Automatic annotation (TrEMBL):
Keywords: Signal. CDD domains: Enpp. It comes from Psophia crepitans. This is ENPP7 phosphodiesterase. SUPFAM superfamilies: Alkaline phosphatase-like. Pfam families: Phosphodiest. Residues 1-17 form the signal peptide. It comes from the Eukaryota. The keyword tRNA-binding does not apply. The keyword Signal applies.
């Protein structure tokens, strides 16, 4: 049922061979991501556990993700504090524009060179003693190093099984208490899947938020039972929001007048609202001119002209032409193969792409609602909580400091035992491949 468990236990016993530092006084950190949790998903559902957490801790009105607003890139921003053009994980899919090879989400998780492009995720820096349960990016090696303890999701994985969620929470508690880890990142593939499949306004999505809320209740109860309440800082966040897909007046590149795929050397289309194109030699101007006014909701740019505010295009992996579409509209390529009712990937300034940030624990103020901030700032907050020196990043500690208890002494930098938590990879692209 869960083939990777064997691996987890193997990793656990391996760690036991290393002398475990005995109970340090440092505060521990648990970073939890519920994929695709739109900022306002708790406003039309009864969420007693999220409400209690907000009352006892800090809640941002919302958090602005990085662009493009998709899973692996946005999680890697949380883990590195960098925008996509600076960390290099510019898509969920690995691709090679010379050969045309593209790898789907799950396979891309295993391509080290895709992730290890100059930025170290916090668990490597912190570790260099970390561990991970299914977090996007948790499977790769960075500069030859990987996280100590991790649980990687199998290819076919039921991302919505609540029993399994609780088992993973129990593993996390064990890793904190028995293995004395200081940092764990834990990933859940919902409510993203429900949002894609049924749409963000559906009953199914609302039911899933109730499940997420119960899970948060279970998590906080287990934190108490494990004696971790006074020294564990819990952060609950996500990668992006969700938008209802508009099924009329669709953008379909194949049907654009004077456009032909025979002018194209490489294309990455049919991935929500984002597209990457390499025209054949000498065809760039022509392709650009036929696409740029093809549809009022479609934006087409040459790489050098892509709006700077997105912090997206200035990277060698970005192709000569980039496409993105307005909220609600997805980009169809040769054939229509996208049937999701909900989608993301849109402009990170669109309200429906905004996501959540909540935190509770000894380092955080109580009952505080803070103004929105960008997700590039989460990394330096994690470093501050763990007392480690951040790598170069695009965030600012000033942006997140107001949520910390004034005068709360933060731990001095020293070696920690870190573990990167549970990343349940998304089932969301099932409808696409
Ligand atoms: C893409 O494929 C070409 C041809 O096989 C190869 O030379 C190049 O190194 C590859 N690029 C990447 C990033 O893998
Ligand atoms: C990032 O990857 C690109 C190709 O995909 C490569 O040209 C570049 O050198 C890499 N940068 C680092 C720092 O690894
Ligand atoms: C996943 O597990 C839940 C039970 O927790 C079940 O309701 C659902 O049907 C399962 N989904 C799939 C695709 O098996
Ligand atoms: C849910 O997960 C539990 C524990 O991993 C497993 O025993 C059960 O069969 C799963 N249910 C479904 C419907 O996948
Ligand atoms: C398509 O090409 C024809 C012939 O070159 C030209 O007359 C027409 O204006 C073009 N239409 C568009 C939308 O570019």
């Amino acid at each position: 049922m869960f083939p990777s468990l064997g691996f987890v236990f193997a990793a656990l016993s391996l760690v036991r061979c290393i002398p475990v530092q005995q109970v340090s006084s440092r505060n521990k950190v648990l970073l939890v991501s519920f994929d695709g949790f739109r900022w306002n998903y708790d406003q039309d559902v009864d969420t007693p556990n999220l409400d209690a957490m907000a009352a006892e801790g800090v809640k941002a009105r919302y958090m602005t993700p990085a662009f493009i607003t998709i899973t692996s890139p946005c999680h890697f921003t949380l883990l590195t504090g960098r925008y996509l053009e600076n960390h290099g994980v510019i898509h969920n899919m690995w691709f090679n524009t010379s050969t045309g090879v593209k790898l789907p989400y799950h396979s891309t998780q295993g391509v080290d060179s895709w992730w290890d492009n100059g930025s170290l995720p916090i668990w490597i820096t912190a570790q260099r003693q970390a561990s991970s349960i299914y977090f996007p990016g948790g499977r790769a090696k960075y500069q030859g190093e990987e996280v100590n303890m991790k649980l990687v999701e199998p290819l076919l994985f039921n991302y919505s099984n609540e029993t399994n969620w609780r088992e993973n929470i129990d593993i996390v508690m064990q890793w904190f208490t028995v293995n004395n880890l200081d940092f764990i990142a834990l990933y859940f593939g919902e409510p993203d899947s429900a949002g894609h499949k049924y749409g963000p306004e559906s009953t199914e999505r609302k039911n899933m938020i109730e499940q997420v809320d119960r899970t948060i209740g279970y998590l906080r109860q287990r934190i108490k039972e494990s004696g971790l309440e006074s020294n564990l800082n819990l952060i609950i966040t996500s990668d992006h929001g969700m938008e209802t897909v508009i099924k009329t007046d669709e953008i379909h590149i194949q049907t654009v007048q004077n456009f032909t795929f025979s002018d194209i050397q490489f294309e990455l289309l049919d991935y929500g609202p984002n597209g990457l194109l390499v025209p054949k030699e000498g065809k760039l101007e022509h392709v650009y001119s036929v696409l740029k006014n093809a549809h009022p909701k479609l934006h087409v740019y040459k790489k050098a002209d892509f709006p700077r505010r997105f912090h997206y295009a200035n990277h060698p992996r970005i192709t000569p032409l980039l496409l993105y579409s307005d909220p609600g509209y997805v980009i169809h390529g040769r054939y229509k193969v996208q049937f999701n009712k909900g989608e993301h990937g849109f402009d990170n300034e669109a309200m429906n792409m905004k996501t959540i940030f909540r935190a509770v624990g000894p380092a955080f103020k109580q009952g505080l609602v803070v103004e929105p901030f960008e997700s590039v700032n989460v990394y330096v907050l994690l470093c501050e909580l763990l007392g480690i020196t951040p790598e170069p990043h695009d965030g600012s500690l000033e942006a997140v400091k107001p949520m910390l208890r004034s005068g709360a002494p933060l731990p001095p930098a020293k070696k920690l035992t870190v573990m990167l938590g549970i990343a349940l990879v998304l089932g969301c692209w099932g409808g696409i491949y």
